[in-house]
């Protein structure tokens, strides 16, 4: 036999052309004949001519008999001039029918539309928060080349990462490495005062380098980017501050006073920067050079004093990994002592082979790096997204379930339409349009709701969302996509299902109207499982937050007023005068001062000083807190041993300290009293030992604390203990007194209890959002269940009538009708609860002090869910069961 | 006399189908017509004629077996129906009747 594979072949494109126009049932024989003829022609006239003839033959088949044809040319649909999907003569009819349907089934429309609106509204908020968080710092065009530097130490006790770096690091980095295009230090201090004419404003003044303007792309509204911070006495301010200080005047060239902790300096305004967007990690109201920091002179060559952040911008071609590798010489050079210490402790290299290293975190990731910023952990963002998605899914499920359930009652209409010649595609479009119309109204209402609730939401959750954020193109595209998906699934599936109905069967009444269907059941289960999951998680989270709040902190937080001193007056002097004024007041129990606040006061400042020292070869870290006399008395911290600072001992204000139990433990001394700590070359004698207490959030473990009293350190907070009977009056009295003591400064005193609560703001906010979300989820699920129950009752009216006629009691019917639903809810609970337990167990693990999950929560939620189902379904069931059976049976 | 609708080319194709009894398919018919009549028939013309004949019920077809030179494709084999045969005979009858009624015999052209 000849090998035909190697024989000449006719042109492929001609075959493809034939396949395109030729009727499929003729194609095989025609191609066969053509190929056979081609081989014959090749033998007769040669390949080239044969190919020409082949093409001519193929073209010759463009004749009516061989062409593809529409099935029939008689029906209207096959007229190419009429668009079958949106025939203009039917469109009006669709809309009329849709409108009548929407109008007649008001309950159904309301549940669907309102449910979607509420879900959409909350989704907009949740997704917007997540969107803003996820796009943090992404507005800098060179964000991929900007990094925050941090020190990594693989300490055997605990791996540590710290963004706080010594002053000489940034200049050395820039001078020693060509890869660094720009490098800047950023030192944020507590608010300090900027004064111009008679205006004194407390502002965030950030100390930095000239490179700040080269690294970060905040548009410079006025001034020259290259020279704005060239001078040590230059100041660049943002637009808000320019407006507040100068109004409409030109700020450039004006001089302002900067007052910090009693020191004044005059600065020349050399530039105005645009306000940083809400989603910027770098926040400031004014920039000055870091050389103005009070400790700059003493620490500029000190590699062991860590004080500020460092940001670097690498050259475009430099990769982060390669540069980090090069930096190991740098750490070996400048941090030899630390490296030695770590090695002596037995530190092992990590997977990159380093014990101690300077590393880089890229700018877009800084916000979620809990070691480098106080942004929320990334997981929380995903939780928010997840909750939003859950709610949208629940709302869509409602929509699908209701549409499907109702589709059976519409079966007759569909049947008649089909019988009259409607195409499947036309039916689909009609029903889909109807769903899309409801979706659209729902979403419109949701958008309106979101717009109206925006201020309320901002106030409740302490966010600063604006309409401008809502209208960002990326976000709009996301919302548009969501709308499409929801209408496509929620509207499309039921439409497809109905379009599929067999017209004859429907008209004969053969479509099963009674069986609820596997899909609807699984959707109901999913819906309830999601709401139960949210509820369980929320309840457990609320319990944990409550637990943290109730936990004893080691000091009495009640009846304690804390007053931030501010920058304009000397805290020590104010404290002395306050003591004088209040000495004989019966409402006041004790007065003291401190350099740090407890909790988060109205000034919103929290600072922390820790000090490390060696005690008999032991490295010890402790919080270093400056206090005044009566500190223990005011906070009501008991003494275990020794005494408090007293005025009568002169040395108390020089080199005496009070330490906490755990510090004594770390020192390894049974009798720590009277021993000396060697701190920065100064011997400090221990005069008292107190139990551990929480300086910072109770969520964290208690750490060793050292209290010291020094006349040279500033007092930033006044603490006043008042008697329990007169809390309100005491606060008013303090307010009045403050005007006398520090005229012209704002009074920002608050109760310690509120300050402590503010510690748990993040948890609180999350718990609130979760409560709201789970409330909405439950409401949506129940409304869905309600509507499905309503439809089921409608469909089973006849069955109920027959049962009653045959002698069933109302209670029997109630049982029969509710048991299906209860069974589904129990299944949902069984799915949701282990998942909730697992998730919350993971979440709780991050807290040093945590609750154990109480199984009663699950029991409670389960009982509540079943009760809710019974009430929802029962309401409908009773209505159906007490109906006169004659009525329902007569309608046949 | 009843009219039969058969074009001249259709008639030739129909006659060829009878001649090639058992092996009447597109290519074979085309080649046979070309050889016998000296006119150049083309595949698409033959197929179109066969299609019309089938619609008129003069032929029936079935798919035959595949052969290698057709790239493994099957051929459609045509057979004449009784109605087709009757039609051919009718045409023949009409022609001979007309010829017989001619007042004189036809002379072949001088082809000496």
TrEMBL record, chain B:
Pfam families membership:
PadR
Q: Which domain of life is it from?
A: Bacteria
- Show where the Transcription regulator PadR N-terminal domain sits: 15-88
Q: What is this protein called?
A: Helix-turn-helix transcriptional regulator
Which InterPro entries does the entry link to? Tscrpt_reg_PadR_N, WH-like_DNA-bd_sf, WH_DNA-bd_sf
